[in-house]
Every structure is written in C-alpha cells, then in structure tokens.
Amino acid sequence: MHYCAGTDHFLMVVKLPGGFYRMLLSDRGEAASVGASPEGAFMHLVDKHFDGVTLGKVVWHSKWQSSVRLADSYRQGRVFLAGDSAHVHSTTGGQGLNCCMQDAYNLGWKLAFVVKGLARASLLDTYEAERRPIAEQVIWAASSLHEIFMGHGKDIAERAQKMRDPAFVDAVVGRCSGISYTYRDQAEKGAAQSLREGPIPGDRAPDVDLGGGRTLFSLTRHPRYTLLALPGNEKVGGRLDLELKPLVHRFKQIMEFHVVPPSEELTRRYGASTRDRLLLLRPDGYVAFRCLAEEAQRLELHLTERFIL
Q1: 11 and 92 part of one domain
Q2: Are 97 and 172 contained in the same domain?
Q3: Dihedral pair phi/psi, residue 211, rounded to 5°
Q4: Highest mean pLDDT among 173-177, 233-237, 243-247
Q5: What is the pLDDT of residue 206?
Q6: Is residue 183 included in any domain, yes or no?
Q7: Which band of pLDDT confidence, cut at 50, 70 and 90, is reported for residue 189?
Q8: Does position 100 have pLDDT exceeding 90, yes or no?
Q9: Which uninterrupted H or E stretch holds 14?
Q10: Could you list the residue range(s) of the whole structural domain that residue 105 is in?
Q11: pLDDT at 4 over 90
C-alpha cells in the first residue's frame, strides 16, 4: 500500500487480488476538469511519484466528493435516524462502517427490549444521547486526518507536523480503532463509587483470555445483558452463584449470568479486589453497572428502573 502526498494532491495505490490495483486520487480539481480522462488524470500523478510505472486498463472508476453533515436530531416520534442518514464525513480513517454498525446495534437491542414489552420506552431516549456525541467525535477524527492527507494548498510539511504530536496521534488512533469511544458522560453517576479499579459504566468492556479456548467476549455472544460475578478468590464462586440465584431468575429474560474466576489477565483488565464484585455488561459490550456483590440490591434497583420484570 502506497500513500503519496504533495502540497496539491494525494495518491493512494493498493494491490488487490487477481492482479488488480485500486487507486485513489485527490487533487484541487484538475482531474475533474472537462476533457480529463481517468487514465490521464491518474498517470499525471503516478509520474510524479514512480519511475517506469504505467497504468493498464481501467475496469471501473467513479468520482466521490467528501461532505460533512450531522443531523440535528436522531429521532422524531417513531422515526429514528442511524448510519449515513444521521452523519456523513470523510472516509479518511475508515470509521464510517464501524460507526454506522454501532448506531444500528445500539438502537437495535433497545428497540427489541421495548417492542417485546421488557423495557420501558424511556430506554429509547438514550439512543440519541449516546450516539450523537460519538458521531461528533468521529467527524472530528475523520476531518483531522482528511486535512492532513487532503488539505490541498497547505504546505505538506506543515500538515505532516501534526502526526509528530503524540497526543494527536493517540486521540486519532484511538478513535479510528473504535475502542476509545465511551458513554461515560451518559452513564449513571455514582454507580462506580464503591469500586476504584477497572472499567466504569459507559466504558467498552475489554476482552480477557479465560483459558481453555474461552474468552470473556465468548460469554457475551447473545442479544441480552451479561452479569459477571468476579469472586475475590476462587473458593467463593459457588456461594455467589447461590446468593445471586433469585436476582438472576427474576431477570432471566434479559440477562445471562456467569461466574468468572480470578486470573492475572482478569486483574490486569478489570483491577484487583479481595472482595466479590458484580459487573453488568450491555448487549453491545459496554459496562452498564458495577458494584460489590454485597451491594446486589443496588444492581437490582438499576435493573428495576429500566425493565418491566
């Protein structure tokens, strides 16, 4: 994969299977001028960066224009916007598909619970509250990268200087990977006060290798909530199972339950504690609630406020 950038243009060349290549060209409008052929426009820039390279037959080409738009609201009554109907931005960073899928999944599991009569309709109000701020961040990251690669007319060295700023790189890479987006600002305040370590409500739950070919994510491959009991030591797993049985039974329609034994990797990802902990994960893999096992009534209240069970 080759990225070639100049002050007034950008060229990307990617080798594909079957002897084909994908080429992306961005300039200040010369390639789109009347009478300019795709072959001629591409060859003009190829000559600037490569020696002895010629283009073969162009089997497919199209023109694309970058736009930046964000809907004022994601909902009006029973109509919801998701994906490209809610936000449009540069493809730089490749965030569009992931963002659209997360919109759909965020809305999908909430709609499912409400339509089935398991959750209160107010759950749907959280869709826009959570996803619109994410779209704003995606637009920022995509636009920032777009300006570096395709901010034509500005000195290329000046644009590249941003990439030498570690803080900027961390912010952009975290967003392009999709793992730095959180719902912390929308999560219930105070739910994390009794626990000091590990992911807090609104964070994306990290995966853990549980051994034996199992991972923590393998426990969440279903369309319901996942309640994880994290014992302070390996000997109390059975007791937790018994103590939480009434709670688990009450919410069995919307939740699955697992006891996760202590391990070094679990400690690394979720913090250390000699006391038993409870961690509630949403269907989309984000932390909904956490507390000490002795505070299970707080978890039950959290679920009761949201679900009709």
Answers
A1: no
A2: yes
A3: 85, 160
A4: 243-247
A5: 94
A6: no
A7: low
A8: yes
A9: strand 9-15
A10: 69-177
A11: no
Helix H segments across the chain?
Answer: 38-49, 96-115, 125-150, 156-160, 166-177, 237-243, 245-250, 264-270, 296-306
Cβ pair 103, 131 in contact under 8 A: yes
Question: Do both 199 and 302 map to the same domain?
Answer: yes
Q: What's the pLDDT tens digit per position in 236-264?
A: 667 888 899 999 999 999 999 999 989 99
d(CA 125, CA 189): 17
- Residues 100 and 150 grouped into a single domain: yes
Token pair 């390639």: residue = 31
Among 155, 152, 157, 156, which residue's Cα sits nearest to residue 8? 152
The reply to whether 222 falls in a domain is yes
**Partners of 23 in beta bridges:** 13
Give the domain-ending residue among 108, 143, 177: 177
Q: Residue 232's closest CA among 206, 210, 259, 205?
A: 259
pLDDT tens digits, residue range 13-49? 999 999 999 998 888 877 777 777 878 888 888 888 8
Q: Is residue 231 one of the residues assigned to a domain?
A: yes
Task: Please calculate the CA angle 111-114-115 and round it to the nearest 5 degrees.
Answer: 80
- 148 and 205 share a domain? no
Q: Which residues contact 305 (CB under 8 A, 6 or more apart)?
A: none
**Of 151, 177, 203, the domain-final residue:** 177
Task: Give the separation between CA 202 and CA 90, rounded to whole angstroms.
Answer: 27
pTM for the model stands at: 0.84
Same domain, 299 and 200: yes
At position 41, the amino acid (one-letter code) is A
Q: Is 263 exposed, middle or buried (0-12, 13-18, 19+ CB in 10 A)?
A: middle
- Domain assignment present for residue 262? The answer is yes
Domain identity same for 249 and 211: yes
Question: How crowded is the C-beta side of 284, counted as CA atoms within 13 Å?
Answer: 26
Task: Say if residue 147 is in the same domain as residue 208.
Answer: no
In angstroms, rounded to a whole number, what is the distance separating the alpha carbons of residues 172 and 169? 5
Query: In whole angstroms, what is the distance from residue 130 CA to residue 124 CA?
Result: 10
Per the structure, the count of domains in the chain is 3
* Residue of 225, 232, 215 whose CA lies nearest to 287: 225
